[in-house]
User: What shape does this take?
Amino acid sequence: MKKPRIMIVDDEQSVRSSLREWFLEDGFEVETAEDGLDALKKLDTGPFDLMIVDLKMPRMDGITLLRRLREVDPGGTVIILTAFAAVDTAVEALKLGAFDYVTKPVDPDELSHTVRRALEQKRLTEENVRLREKVSELSSSSPIIGGSPAMGHVMDLVCTVAETEASVVIRGESGTGKELIARAIHAGSPRRFFPIVAVNCGAIPETLLESELFGHEKGAYTGAHYRRKGKIELANGGTLFLDEIGEIPAKMQVDLLRVLESHRFTRLGGTQEIVSDFRLVCATNRNLEALVQEESFREDLYYRINVFSIDLPPLRERLEDIPLLTEHFVDKYARSMGKPPKQMTVEAGELLQSYDWPGNVRELENAIERAMVVGQGNRIRPEDLPLRVEQDAVRPRNRSLDALESGHISCVLREESGNVSQAARVLGIDRGTLYNKIKKYGIKSG
Amino acid sequence: MTDEILLAFLNDFRPSWSEDLRRRVGAATDRFVRVDSLRVDLQRFHAPEREQYHATLLLAEMLRHRPAGAGHIVGITEVDLFIPVLTFVFGQAQLGGPGAVVSVMRLHADYYGLPANESLLLDRAVKEVVHELGHGFGLVHCPDYSCVMSSSTYVEDVDLKAERYCPDCLDLLANPPESRVNVV
Ligand SMILES: [Zn+2]
Ligand SMILES: [Zn+2]
Assistant: This one.
């Protein structure tokens, strides 16, 4: 078991040395500092589980140190040492986030218990952070919806690869839900109790991306007032999700490759080597092979990240999933707007089926959200849907008859609440024919 | 450094149970134990404002009197000990070092207003000496509450534990990790 680390900050040498001995005997790894400034400097030697901080010190006192600690390393648990006369200041220290204070001279039993409580709280806090991340991860993300054979195949791949440590590249047009798939892989992996940390490499200016990924030390560049942990460090134990990996600049491709090979790196402006154990999942809407061909993406990096590949079909190739997706988004926005859910009219449903969806699921979601806002009554009509859908839908492009037919059948089935006899009557075919078509297209009812 | 342990009773303190202490510390540590008296000018370590004696300074002084080539030395005193910041200590040792000092003052039942009990005092003294020696051998506190190396901040904690090292601690003594090997 790893020894807990403690830093003792006190200007009196005799206090430092006796507490040092006391904590060494209690199985701690001990560092000492003679004032706040010294303590801040020594934080570089690595994270501390606990700090014992004297309030009255020259140069930088305990209160100032606490303020700075809050900015630099909010995870550290601090116990304040104070003279009996300074209890007011000790209370101020508690407001600044100190765990507790003990008055000098302290009863060994009280010190021992305070330390144990502090360590226990730290453990619980860390566990809570993890649990909270886990819960938000499961509840905030929309479920991956789709009963189509195409999505069924994707989910099979997700299940297969999730349990492994393999690097995965998720490919798909924008809006197809690549991040949801990354989260599903993480949630199905042994790393699921650790965070999944996402970075959109295409959305962050090149100058900031480096610090976003690797973190930086205080003063690493103008404006770097505090030490900051990078996403790679934060993903320790969990999954690092790099979205739009195709956009990553050439210089950083080299740095990233090095981290992937060793799982070691230093923060910008730092010398301390940091180890991070993470599993990499990437996503892209670009053709990585073409990027490698034109030498804008390193071939060695390509092979490193592309151990396993999952292709997400665009929405126009799984139109049969639209009714389920629509229902999900209607419910979602009805709940968030405090309105009753609305029903699609047959015409609106057909409109959704005949559109090309260049923006994929995200575009569908936006369309439904708009319809929920502008639509009157308890039905969604074609005119409630964004105009772009209507205009493009007039001339459905590249749409096979099968796709049109399967989409229309799904739509009518939803409208008739999955009643096949009723749907067959609306469609003007007999029940047996409809059953055959449902089977043929893999349409899920209800 | 020899394997020998010297139990050094400070100044005029020489209880009737010193021979029992010698025998039982020897049994617990499996080492040769010798008893002697040691004269120290305690007044130099006295803190008048708290009526206590500075354990760390006293320990340093004892080590100056330690014979060359001697093994572990444990000073045993009746006076109350403290280290800065803490209100008191039962004893003080150096992790992986040859010296330790133990106070029996707070091990007396009558210190807590209870009837005097010599055999209980001896039990506690054995445990405290074996505990501080354990630190000298490089052991840190043990989570097993019945192990002599479990941390005691109340005298009742001392009564809970046995005067023996638990199997885990014995294992560490037999195979000290690299960091614990201390060349003196
Ligand atoms: Zn101890
Ligand atoms: Zn033990």
